[in-house]
Amino acid sequence: MSVVLERLRPDHAPALLAFERENRAYFAATVPDRGDAYFADFAARHQALLDEQEEGTIRFHVLVEEDGRIVGRVNLIDLADGAAELGYRIAESATGRGLATRGVREVCRLAVEEYGLRRLYAKASPEHAASRAVLARVGFGAVGRETLKTGESAIAYELDLGGSFGRERSGTDS
Length: 174
Description:
By secondary structure, the chain is of the alpha+beta class. Helix content is 36%, strand content 30%. The protein has helices at 13-22, 24-28, 36-40, 42-55, 99-113, 129-138, 165-168, and strands at 3-7, 59-65, 70-80, 83-90, 119-124, 141-147, 153-160. Strands 1-2-3-4-5-7-6 form a seven-stranded mixed beta sheet, with helices on both faces. The two termini are 19 Å apart. 27% of the residues are buried.
């Protein structure tokens, strides 16, 4: 089934909520849980994120299958001074298909071509080998360790988007 990357829109709300609910336990195994309030207040939260996106401080993207089901998210937050932080999550049912790598590569291309960014940052748990592998395949380099708000340790990554990002990294997923 074909999957496309789309910028988050209001009409994605039902599919996005379903994606988050269906994968809540799966995500919570590797990243802090969003909490019950996220789901209870989803409509207001979704609208607030869309408003922020219009202001240009964040860019949210979803990976959508032909039937409209969302199987992943790839987000850029805290856009400022030509840089942003990258975050992504893929549905448990869609892992192993190269979707994270494809989605992250596409968002990196958009970061350069559409959003005018020059540098991206990311964090990954030392225990989350799949996430670290995606970052390495796309060209992120580890630059140190950070302590997250939760007190957990994370590896910090950085990617210089330089002018030739899209041409150098346009190969197939591994």
